[in-house]
Amino acid sequence: MLGQMMHQPLLISSLLRHAERHHGEQEVVSRRVEGDIHRYSYKELAARSRCLAKALATLGVRQGARVGTIAWNGYRHLELYYAVSGSGAVLHTLNPRLHADQLAWIADHAEDQVLCFDKTFLPLVEVVAPRLATVRHFVLMADRDQMPADTRIPGLLCYEDLIASQDDDFDWPEFDENTASSLCYTSGTTGNPKGVLYSHRSTVLHSYASALPDALNLSARDTILPVVPMFHVNAWGLPYSACMVGAKLVFPGPSLDGRSLYELFEAEGVTLSAGVPTVWQGLLAHVQSQNLRFSTMRRTIIGGSACPPAMMEKFEDRYDVQVIHAWGMTELSPLGTVCVLKGEQLAWPETQRRTVQAKQGRALFGVDMKIVDDQGEEVPWDGQSAGELLVRGHWVMDQYFKGDKSQLVIKDDQGWFPTGDVATIDAQGFMNITDRSKDVIKSGGEWIGSIDLENIAMAHPGVAMAACVAARHPKWDERPLLIVVRKPGAELARDELLAFYEGKIAKWWTPDDVVFVDAIPLGATGKMLKNQLRERFQDHLLERA
Amino acid sequence: MLGQMMHQPLLISSLLRHAERHHGEQEVVSRRVEGDIHRYSYKELAARSRCLAKALATLGVRQGARVGTIAWNGYRHLELYYAVSGSGAVLHTLNPRLHADQLAWIADHAEDQVLCFDKTFLPLVEVVAPRLATVRHFVLMADRDQMPADTRIPGLLCYEDLIASQDDDFDWPEFDENTASSLCYTSGTTGNPKGVLYSHRSTVLHSYASALPDALNLSARDTILPVVPMFHVNAWGLPYSACMVGAKLVFPGPSLDGRSLYELFEAEGVTLSAGVPTVWQGLLAHVQSQNLRFSTMRRTIIGGSACPPAMMEKFEDRYDVQVIHAWGMTELSPLGTVCVLKGEQLAWPETQRRTVQAKQGRALFGVDMKIVDDQGEEVPWDGQSAGELLVRGHWVMDQYFKGDKSQLVIKDDQGWFPTGDVATIDAQGFMNITDRSKDVIKSGGEWIGSIDLENIAMAHPGVAMAACVAARHPKWDERPLLIVVRKPGAELARDELLAFYEGKIAKWWTPDDVVFVDAIPLGATGKMLKNQLRERFQDHLLERA
After folding, report:
1. Helices (H) and strands (E) in chain A, counts
2. What SS3 class is residue A284?
3. Which of A155, A472, B81, B422 has the fewest CB atoms within 10 Å around its CB?
């Protein structure tokens, strides 16, 4: 027997309609590529998004068609978020930091029909454009007077002309809530990029969960500045959740330096920001050097990688800004966990609280997680036992877009997605990532996390860089091997470094040996290429024995 | 083109599974019918709910079958919430305050197969039981040693025996999220009660929205005491939303007097409570007479009827407890609006803020509202123009359960539900109920709200009770007529009372005449039966003219 409630699809257009009707005067403020500040209301956002939807239709964009963007965080990008998905087409956000070869591969794979981009990226698009097989229209997201007099892109369209060509008399279509809404590619260290195809349903449910008090805690009293780019996993969903709650939005455009961000925080009364740790380093350096304070900012969401404890302490103790750790991934829309303390933990001593706050956090309602051993059996939630982290839920990817057989990632018969991370979960449900699963060292059936061992080595004054990898061992299968680059002039020897581990970690976690090298190979994003080290040194312990 | 995200149904069982896995140690505390305090964890709640689901299956409860409850707020009632709906059956909460005739009518109409009840209601059920055509099993929600030695109910079962008869090895079934989950009857002043049949989807979406920061603002740091009964529109959804966020739950059982509530608030560290104004009168009287304070309670949700301004001021100014006005109805699961200020309003002067806080609030994302005139045209959101309030959304009823043609309530072609209320909405989106639509006075095409006129009369020291009703008028169609019961000994005359309106209201709203009566007829719940007054006095102005 079915219930007798109204049945409306969960659609992205309903977020915009709600913002327009119930928070119509709320502001959206953008620092533009041109350098000036642009401001308007949700009412105007909604009206212009309707004009844009009509204009896209005249360009032949039909339901399911992909519309690419290469753009900073700004109001026009936001209009594209709503106009494209709201029409039933698919918003495909491309990452301008990728190499032109990768951009061309991705746009071709996605079969983008239209490509909209900020003026910053005109040179990049001019290089890529001739190689794009499917793109029929290129749109420069700029005023008419910003259009280049001369360009290699044939028939380049002006975004503002498109908007001006239409009135806003348009009703958002209704369709199946499982319809694709947006597409984001994740580029691993190996193989081609893989696309994650979100749906309207997954996006709206993610918005609800991410706005909850124990997640990002979003309300109409917030002024949100997403530093995390809108080309990177939907800016953690903030363009959607802000409309859901009627928060003021502030977009930094291309200016992500400490001074520009700080000015925007203060001028617009930002209460909440979100980004990766590296962005905050520049901000904190600026604030510290100028002896400034945050007048209104009280919370910052940090994700992408772990927040260094020193940064967390500085934000909280010195600037009264609460740091909220979050963890997610492209395949998760992105939010999986947020680190917000439970009631009983509020009374814990500070050091104990800080230990919890350094973790990636607990699961939002709507996703579940588990950690499993090599046999796929669940590992206990004791804060010590590590296992591969698996997730499932309403906004977790099912399959990659146009994925081939090698990309069928579903692991067990209950449909859990393997994240590729190794983690512990404590009795309170707080998850802590200890390693990537390909980097973990499996010693006699127990798992040793390489990240901890590297952090300890890096704390030694004689160490410039350290990687810990699995080396084959006759008795234990694998044992940790430390690969170290000494600091210039440092006289550090093997035994001294191994002795440095005493008391810092379980004795059996201590690396079996140390190899000193001149350099550790790094990838394009600065990450250590530990797979190369593994290949080179995998027999080191066998040879030594 | 569909998105490629995991597809899981939105099921009530997933709320319990989340609470068990991620907040397993969180407490559920209940004052029992027996008078003692019972406490256990979400883990135990989940395990016992699984035992109960298996036991219900042995009683022949299949998917879609209705299981009735007549019970206070307590852990066993909570187990029934999850065991019945989680199994795919339908939880039908009956209101013990109804007359036995109504209870029998409702249970028959719902075709309840099992009826579970607290010991308080044994005498009531003994009266009703012989008249119930469909109930096959009666279950007393009590320990074995609490079972009556002798009862007129044949084959009366003991709830704890049912639980003890099963282990908890049970997987919640998966099914269509639109499946019926629960049933609640609303009893209007006319006609038979009408059933609202909620779905799993509507319930889970309502939970998300109601927990948002701008709604009830629920987190794992909260200790929630729902005074609003679980037999009354799902206790405003708190049994579900508490599991979603992992909040501690405290149930008051049958003891709703001020002293009992206050003791529980203090002993259990309650941070948030929810109920109708009358309950808070008793609580405030107790706290005031004993010169007490609230140590932990900081927010109270008030709904059901408008919170008197004096009560709001007392809570906030004297006890530092924030009063949050909410509005809803059985047909809305129940939440439609919550009155939480927007950012710019926080800086307003106190009197202006209080004016907003006295309203019913703004719409949660997931429901929309509009106000319309007699022609169904939308009325402006100016805080002045009144219109009939219509709503639609994910948790708004579509049709009444087994409703006949006379109960087809859908009003316009876009599927808006007419609430039967008349309201204004201001430019910020705050809705304020000014009347019931059947009570509004339509004077020359303009609407005059009877509630305001009654409140002014009630403020006069000589008035004991006042009702304002529409009386027929040759020129204006209808004009307001005031019906007044004087206070004992008061000498109040017509002209004096009408003069009392001067400056308090638009001149043309002033009632045309006053009729003094000895008594105003009241319904069972204490509401004035204004339809009787209308019938009696509808020609008063014509006769006078």
Report:
1. 17, 25
2. helix
3. A155
Is B93 one of the annotated active-site residues of the chain?
Answer: no
A78's tokens: 């936001």
Determine contact, residues B153/B138, Cβ cutoff 8 Å. Answer: yes
Note the pLDDT tens digit of each residue in B154-206. Answer: 999 999 999 999 999 999 999 999 999 999 998 765 678 899 999 999 999 99
Question: Does A222 reach chain B within 8 Å, measured CB to CB?
Answer: yes
Answer whether the bond into residue A193 is a cis peptide, omega within 30°.
no
Give the model's pLDDT for residue A410: 60
What is chain B's alpha carbon radius of gyration, rounded to the nearest angstrom? 25
Instruction: Provide the pLDDT for residue A155.
Output: 94
Model confidence at A411, in pLDDT bands (50, 70, 90)?
Answer: low
pLDDT in tens, B475-498: 999 999 999 999 999 999 999 999
Burial of residue A464, with CB atoms counted within 10 A of its CB: 0-12 exposed, 13-18 middle, 19 or more buried? middle
User: If you count residue pairs, one on A and one on B, with CB atoms under 8 Å apart, how many are there?
Assistant: 206
Cβ pair B222:A343 closer than 8 A: yes
pLDDT for residue A215 is more than 70:
yes
pLDDT digits (tens, 9 = 90+) for A474-531: 999 999 999 999 999 999 999 999 999 999 888 999 999 999 999 998 876 567 888 8
Q: Does A87 touch chain B (CB under 8 A)?
A: no
Task: Choose the closest CB to A220 out of B197, B214, B399.
Answer: B214
Residue A19 CB partners (closer than 8 Å, separation 6+): A26, A42, A45, A46, A242, A243, A244, A246
CB contacts under 8 A, A 290-319 vs B, are none
* Active-site position among A120, A134, A151, A186: A186
How buried is residue B99: exposed, middle or buried, by Cβ count under 10 Å (0-12/13-18/19+)? exposed
Under 8 Å between Cβ of A119 and A144 = no
The identity of residue B381, as a single letter, is W
Give the H or E element holding residue A424: strand A417-425
Could you tell me if A341 lies within 8 Å of chain B, comparing CB atoms? yes
The rounded mean pLDDT for chain B is 93
Contact between chains at B199 and A17 (C-beta distance less than 8 A)? no
Query: Of B160, B331, B388, B478, which residue is the catalytic one?
Result: B331
| Contact between B178 and A3 using a beta-carbon 8 Å cutoff | yes
Distance from CA of A518 to the nearest CA of B (A): 45
- Longest CA pairwise span in chain A (Å): 78
Residue pair A422/A449 in contact (Cβ under 8 Å)? The answer is: yes
Closest CA–CA distance from residue B491 to any residue of chain A (Å): 49
Using CA atoms, how far residue B153 sits from A216, B97, B163, in Å, is 53, 20, 20
Q: Residue A196 in contact with residue A397, Cβ under 8 Å? A: yes
What is the residue type of A376?
G
- Asked if residue A208 lies in contact with residue B208, where contact means CB atoms within 8 angstroms, the answer is yes
**What's the pLDDT at A167?**
98
- Does the annotation mark A331 as catalytic? yes
Q: ipTM > 0.90? A: yes
pLDDT in tens, B424-450: 999 999 999 988 888 889 898 888 888
Report the C-alpha gap between B188 and B435 in whole angstroms. Answer: 16
Q: Is B324 on the interface with A (CB under 8 A)?
A: no
Residue A290 has a CB neighbour count (10 Å cut-off) of 10
Which of A331, A388, A454, A478 is labelled catalytic?
A331
pLDDT tens, residue by residue, B6-61: 999 999 999 999 999 999 999 999 999 988 999 999 999 999 999 999 999 999 99
* Residue A126 token pair: 């001019």
Is residue B507 annotated as part of the catalytic site, yes or no? no
Chain B contacts in chain A segment 42-81 (CB below 8 A)? 63-64
Measured CA distances, A138 to A113, A129, A182, B500, B517 (Å): 9, 9, 19, 70, 78
Query: Using CA atoms, how far apart are residues B464 and B34, in angstroms rounded to an integer?
Result: 40
